[in-house]
Amino acid sequence: MPPDLALGRRPGLGARLSPAWRGTLVRIALAWLALIGVFAPDWARIADQWWNSSTYNHMVLVPPLVAWLAWQRREQVMAFAPATWLPGLVAFGALLFVWALGALSGFDLLRQAAVVGLLPASLLSLAGPRVFAALMFPLAYMVFMVPFGDELVPVLQMITAKLTVALVNLSAIPAAIDGVYIDTPAGLFEVAEACSGVKFLIAMVALGVFVAHVGFSSWRRRAAFMVLCIVAPIVGNGLRAFATIFMAQYVGAERAAGIDHLIYGWVFFATIIALVIGLAWRHFDRAVDDPMVDVEAVERSPLISRLARASASAASGTIGLVLLVAVAIGWVALADGRSATLPARIALLEVPGWQRVDYAPAYPWEPRAAGAEHRLLGRYADAHGHRVDVFYALYSVQREGQEAGGFGEGALRAESGWSWLGAGPAQDQARADRLRADNGTERLALTFYRTGDLLSGNNLALKLAVLRDRALLRRRPTALLILSSEAGEQGSPATGLAEFQRAAGAVGPWMDRIASAR
């Protein structure tokens, strides 16, 4: 009798691993290390957002949670024989294609989602569909390693502002809302980006998915719990904003803001968590000792059984992974080496009925266009007193650090003293934004993107056009045009902008003439 059994001890996990499992684990570990190394710039950006952005600080906990979830399944997973599965290369190749699309279009979210997805896809290829099915949830939970959610900020700002002003009015305090600004007797309050509650919503959803899986077995209860995890942080954030405005009516805006800063943050979020978990605790229906994987169900699955037949040698799977990575990286490198030829200098064009005047805004305003080879900023005025500010930027290529539609680029520059007030009047080929400066100055900005035949204010349309051109190795410049006007004595900013566009003619050809220095 082996000594371990004679003493009543169970052999360690390493002793119970079969040779097939040992080889598979080594290949998976090497593959994951290689993928993290090859795509190190993407992983570095992901880690930077985890560590330096408060919206994504909670994501540093996701890898340990994934490891814990996988460890809880170790006994059940070992019941399956691992096998290299060549069809898994299709999923792996598809994710590399997504990564390439993100790299070619300058869409970081696609790149980052793809590099995270490459890890479970490589496991599917190297261990087979049965092992993948047994580890399905922890592998799927890796999606919360991807920094996403900033796109929700404008929507959440508006929701918070409307919920807050409704509560303020219910409390008999007179209040008026204009975009994300709420005017009360105690002062003007802004629902800024940091007050949108996006970081709490994202973190709560990530926590909710984990708790729903571990604590519930009923899908109805899981769904109800997830609805609570979405609603609670949104409503809680609205109540917090209302409480700040309510207190300001009695103690002043400055003291109310100071109190808000004391409770706002992870203390506030911890309170929401405690309330949600406390409410759901008595409804947990999953026993602590329930197995995480139904081994028999996986073994009996006709679909998984049919898929598992397509096994292959470990060498062929490894070679397939390496070749696919090489093709994707080579394609992107080839596209990165191509950029459009630009003129040595460009200048703003003459516009009939309008004259160039000194640029003297009521509050400093200059859009951001990082990576653009040419930038122009000037002011036009007509005989009726309308003034229009024109910002133009020209890029030879769109890639990391040179994105006309990148985050923080364009009319609303971070930490510039300007805030987003709301969407402006609808435009056919432009994005309209109302901005407000710290001194109360308001500005209407129309943003146009131009590349090839595209003229649009839609950032997604720009990325798709750039993606198409770069994928086909075409060299085309990209231009950014922002027409803007301050609210003031000269009349409606929208009227001045409309008159300027009418005098300048079609916007697309006008932008093309600047780009060609004609």
UniProtKB/TrEMBL annotation:
GO annotations of cellular component type: plasma membrane
Residues annotated as domain Methanolan biosynthesis EpsI: 321-506
Transmembrane segment boundaries: 20-40, 55-71, 83-107, 127-147, 159-177, 197-216, 223-251, 263-281, 310-334
Pfam families: DUF3485, Exosortase_EpsH
Localization per Swiss-Prot or TrEMBL: Cell membrane
Membrane topology qualifier: Multi-pass membrane protein
Alphabetically ordered keywords of this record: Cell membrane, Hydrolase, Membrane, Protease, Transmembrane, Transmembrane helix
A Gene Ontology BP annotation from the UniProt entry: proteolysis
Recorded GO MF terms: peptidase activity
NCBIfam families assigned to the protein according to its UniProt record, in alphabetical order: 8TM_EpsH, EpsI_fam, exo_archaeo, exosort_XrtA
Name recorded for this polypeptide: Exosortase A
Phylogenetic classification of the source organism: Bacteria, Pseudomonadati, Pseudomonadota, Alphaproteobacteria, Sphingomonadales
